[in-house]
Specification:
By secondary structure, this protein is an alpha/beta fold. The chain folds into two domains: about 180 residues, FAD/NAD(P)-binding domain (3-Layer(bba) Sandwich), CATH 3.50.50; about 100 residues, FAD/NAD(P)-binding domain, CATH 3.50.50. Helices cover about 25% and strands about 25% of the residues. Strands 1, 2, 3, 4, 5, 6 and 17 form a seven-stranded mixed sheet that branches. Helix 1 links the parallel strand 1 and strand 2. It is elongated. The mean pLDDT is about 95. The protein binds flavin-adenine dinucleotide. The site of flavin-adenine dinucleotide has 40 residues, from helix 1 and helix 7.
Length: about 300
Amino acid sequence: MNIDVLIVGGGPAGLSAALILGRCRRTVLVCDDRQQRNRASKEIHGLLGSNGRSPAQFLQEGREELMRHESVSMRQARVTEMEPCEDGFRFACEDGVSGIAARVLLATGIVDEIPDLPGIHALYGVSVHHCLYCDGFEYAGQPVAAYGKGDKGAELGIMMKYWIDDIVVCSDGTEVSAAVVKRLEQHGISLRTEPVRELHGARGILSTIAFENGPDLSRTGMFFSTGCHQGSDLPLRLGCKRDEKGGVITDALTEETTVPGLYVAGDVSRDVLLVAVAIAEGAKAAVAINKAFLRRDGFCN
Ligand SMILES: Cc1cc2nc3c(=O)[nH]c(=O)nc-3n(C[C@H](O)[C@H](O)[C@H](O)COP(=O)(O)OP(=O)(O)OC[C@H]3O[C@@H](n4cnc5c(N)ncnc54)[C@H](O)[C@@H]3O)c2cc1C
């Protein structure tokens, strides 16, 4: 198949770009293996007009909107191969589909490293979170833990104090530096350094944090500070330059990477990691891609 644009990733960034490109009557293929970053969450917060909608419903409605555009098609498949060629990029998906796309947009997201704590997966996305901008507002007045090893959890806890009054930092068997312990004291935040044994809760709601030694801690929510990595190795394999955090570097006006014809949108660039920003970057990249085609075909300078 020969298409104008291959969009790899069908989260908010990829679907937003597909919508704009479909409205420009470009032939677009969206390939997505449906591992959107916020799929464990029940509600999107901070998205104008969509507050409280489930991520699954939000994306389903986005896909349905795209189906109205004849030039856009979607596949639930992972793109596994890609290399630059004379006409753009040659690609192949794990389901056997292959072709050439004149331009490629990588909207492949990032993957969060969830702490390895027994009980966490049943609570993650409902009462265990990592992003204060996404979920901090909901916890005002509630007892909440800040989890992270070394100084990381303590620094998160200090920032959380702005949103939430009752914070206990859990450093899970690791030491916090004397300077940061002093800051915790200044902010009136308690510290538990014992190794965490298990998280307990029901229907997604955290109730207790159990430690290897010492009393249980009663909490209704927990935020953690760990790391994250790219959702796909395609940016690296294609030679995109990345910043010190691992985010793909893009042109501020076009979202084009350092590889000509290859664009990124959404969390891949590790700018502001919110749905609203992913949607905006997808739209911005789509307009830049369409402009490149208009210039190529003599419709504008
Ligand atoms: C638990 C949680 C809750 C969150 N809550 C909020 C919130 O309330 N409000 C908010 O604004 N933000 C929230 N976020 C952040 C939000 O999820 C992200 O900012 C947003 O999903 C980024 O969109 P994206 O399109 O860049 O990436 P994603 O939504 O992660 O989509 C990327 C897609 O690309 C696919 N993909 C990757 N590689 C390939 C490949 N090679 N081939 C095919 N497909 C591929 C993935 O499977 C995935 O479907 C939350 C994040 C988490 C983890």
